[in-house]
Amino acid sequence: METQTFANDPENVIEADRAHVWHHLSQHKPYETVDPRIIVEGKGLRVWDIKGKEHIDAVSGGVWTVNVGYGRARIGQAMADAVTKMCFFGGTAGTIPGAQFAEMLIDKMPGLDRVYYANSGSEANEKAFKMVRQISHKHYGGKKQKILYRERDYHGSTIAAMSAGGQDERNAQYGPFTPGFVRVPHCLEYRSQDGSLGEEYGAKAAQAIEDVILAEGADTIGALCLEPITAGGGIIVPPKGYWERVQEICKKYDILLHIDEVVCGIGRTGTWFGYQQFDVQPDIVTMAKGVASGYAAISCCVTTNRVFDMFKDDSDHLGYFRDISTFGGCTAGPAAAIENMKIIEEEDLRGNSVAMGEHLQGNLHSLMEKHKWIGDVRGMGLFAGAELVKDRQTKEPVDEKYVGAIVADCMAQGIIIGATNRSLPGYNNTLLFAPSLIATADDLDQVTAGVDEAITRVLG
Ligand code: PLP
């Protein structure tokens, strides 16, 4: 691959990083011997590290964020213009970019009305949980305060978000967690316990949610929080009919439906939001990563006016949503988000996600024909997973060390892919792909050719 050199003294940067930066999700030991990976430049789908090595990035900045790709000067310019004029005003005030982006966003979300700004996916989810709890206090005598979440789903790294975390390995050693969060089963058809498939499996998976509601008491449950398509838990596209039935259940028991679009939002699956792939109308939607494609830190908790109006009671001096996020008053976030959304529209990146998503699925299915280790390929748009098993009959997962070795082999080839990692006990066996929505067929062919080689080298 092409290499590039950089004027900054790489050794100094590497040593400063090694001495003082605590990297996310990283074991310490390797840093004693392996240089930290420092990414210094990006253009389109490609990034260069500090040693000048070029990588093709099939996971949008490592964590599925850079939906419009790297090097978009117009987003940088929009942010510079916004912060030069008015960088920040927090608390009870609004800003021009904040109002403009909210209007653009709501236009893409029929049935939703209000945007509450924050900075990360975890934080947006915390806002939603707080809304649900306060609604319970204000309107249900404090009784309807439980929040249901699903096995394998992830909603963030803060303690309450982890209390809603369906990935046990992620949660290990961080308890005790916040009370009032109750788990419902996952909906991964490939791992159907009784052999039912398709719509039948979808109905059973939704029924499993209703069973939990009935066991807990519907009058104690304020909200159901789900990812539209489970991301880090293994790219789980819910079976046909599932979402529609989930919606009916929520309506039946007066339970708010909170959909976490932190990953699927802003075009990832080919629609603006993942839930728009299904016939479902949420009450609360949270989003983060793709909102400004990582050019700025911004997240949103979007609600209906019905939810908003539940806080409209001037007679209760504590009755409004008494929440704040200091940096929810930054203009850089919404300014970047406006430009990001314009790019997606002008370049039809949702259309590209659909077309290139089919190409990616096709490539992964071809790999499945060649490698007996791939038990299942699933996904939607430019969002895909390949689950690795020892045996297609028993579906026993391959050991996670092989999955790690495949990811590392790809990395050595200059191809960045992801995997379910230290999240699901026994099931860290799915390779993950979520390239920027600008990916071309050539890019994807390059990625899957590298994966092909890596699987051969690691598993034979
Ligand atoms: N929700 C989902 C579905 C996520 O995948 C993530 C992060 O990966 C989050 C929430 C948390 O977002 P953040 O890391 O910005 O707090």
TrEMBL record:
Pfam families: Aminotran_3
One GO CC term, this protein: cytosol
GO MF, one example: transaminase activity
Gene3D superfamilies: Aspartate Aminotransferase, domain 1 (3.90.1150.10), Type I PLP-dependent aspartate aminotransferase-like (Major domain) (3.40.640.10)
Keyword Transferase: yes
Statement: the UniProt record of this protein carries the keyword Iron: no
InterPro entries associated with the record: Aminotrans_3, Aminotrans_3_PPA_site, PyrdxlP-dep_Trfase, PyrdxlP-dep_Trfase_major, PyrdxlP-dep_Trfase_small
Listed cofactors: pyridoxal 5'-phosphate
Keywords, alphabetical: Aminotransferase, Pyridoxal phosphate, Pyruvate, Transferase
Top-rank taxon: Bacteria
PANTHER family: AMINOTRANSFERASE (PTHR43094), AMINOTRANSFERASE CLASS-III (PTHR43094:SF1)
Family membership noted in the UniProt record: Belongs to the class-III pyridoxal-phosphate-dependent aminotransferase family.
The protein's name: Taurine-pyruvate aminotransferase
Naturally occurring in which organism (per UniProt): Yoonia maricola
